[in-house]
């Protein structure tokens, strides 16, 4: 009888583990899928806007002048940052579908914000940097997902680093120091490389804590996870582009 009960208990634990593993796999696939679609929206928006911003002779159109050479450029530059802060506050009031649409809308806005890269850098260097970023991101995210090491302690230092990057970048808008920009780029690559691994592990642990709870709530946490990884990827790409990008 004891052997039977032991077997039955072990069988139950194995079944629960299998269910959690299957649910975690589906959850992470959803996170990565949302992130990939968001990146696609950003790429299409950035390329489409940059194409409409110049005419056949390479001169800025009215749209291009408004976006890149008027005070509106400051609004476009900082609007995504404001939306990120508002995203968390709005999440609880939105449905899963509404939160998904907000995420894609943010991705399109980010495309507008970075569209100038197609006017500054050569297409080949943009594609090359994107591929390097994708390979680095995949390796870092895989390590964050599979490592047994608890890296939750990285969070506070990385967030402080991001705040420092934002402040330094704003200051350098006025200083226009190439040396400072170089230092910011190096730190940016290191910080967002760390955040990629940290966020992946955090997303995984969030699911393990919440598995079996309200499905809508899990759907919203998946969208937040996709947003975090999307920002990690995009910032890693932008900082690497400053090293690898060949200017037009």
Automatic annotation (TrEMBL):
Domain of life, source organism = Bacteria
Q: Which Pfam family would be a valid example here?
A: Bax1-I
What membrane topology is given?
Multi-pass membrane protein
Q: Which InterPro entries match?
A: Bax_inhibitor_1-related
Keyword Zinc-finger in annotation: no
The reply to whether Transmembrane figures as a keyword in the UniProt entry is yes
Q: What is its main location?
A: membrane
Q: Where are the transmembrane segments?
A: 31-54, 74-94, 101-120, 126-145, 157-176, 182-200, 221-244
* Keywords per UniProt: Membrane, Transmembrane, Transmembrane helix
Localisation per UniProt entry: Membrane
Identify its protein family. Belongs to the BI1 family.
PANTHER family per record: BAX INHIBITOR-RELATED, PROTEIN LIFEGUARD 4
Name of protein: Bax inhibitor-1/YccA family protein
Q: What is the organism of origin for this protein?
A: Paracoccus spongiarum
């Amino acid at each position: 009888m004891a052997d039977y009960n032991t077997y039955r208990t072990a069988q139950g634990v194995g079944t629960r583990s299998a269910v959690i593993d299957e649910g975690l796999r589906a959850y992470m696939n959803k996170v990565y899928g949302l992130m990939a679609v968001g990146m696609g929206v950003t790429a299409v928006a950035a390329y489409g806007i940059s194409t409409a911003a110049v005419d056949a002779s390479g001169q800025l159109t009215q749209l291009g002048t408004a976006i890149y050479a008027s005070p509106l450029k400051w609004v476009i530059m900082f609007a995504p940052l404001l939306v990120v802060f508002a995203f968390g506050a709005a999440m609880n009031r939105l449905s899963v579908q509404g939160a998904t649409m907000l995420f894609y809308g943010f991705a399109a806005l980010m495309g507008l914000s970075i569209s100038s890269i197609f006017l500054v850098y050569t297409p080949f260097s943009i594609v090359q940097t994107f591929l390097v970023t994708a390979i680095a991101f995949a390796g870092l995210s895989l390590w964050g997902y599979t490592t047994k090491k608890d890296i939750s302690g990285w969070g506070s230092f990385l967030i402080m680093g991001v705040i420092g990057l934002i402040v330094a970048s704003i200051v350098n808008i006025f200083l226009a120091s190439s040396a400072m920009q170089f230092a910011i780029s190096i730190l940016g690559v290191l910080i967002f490389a760390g955040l990629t691994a940290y966020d992946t592990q955090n997303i995984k642990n969030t699911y393990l804590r919440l598995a079996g709870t309200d499905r809508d709530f899990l759907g919203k946490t998946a969208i937040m996870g996709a947003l975090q990884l999307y920002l990690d990827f995009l910032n890693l790409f932008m900082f690497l582009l400053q090293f690898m990008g060949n200017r037009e």
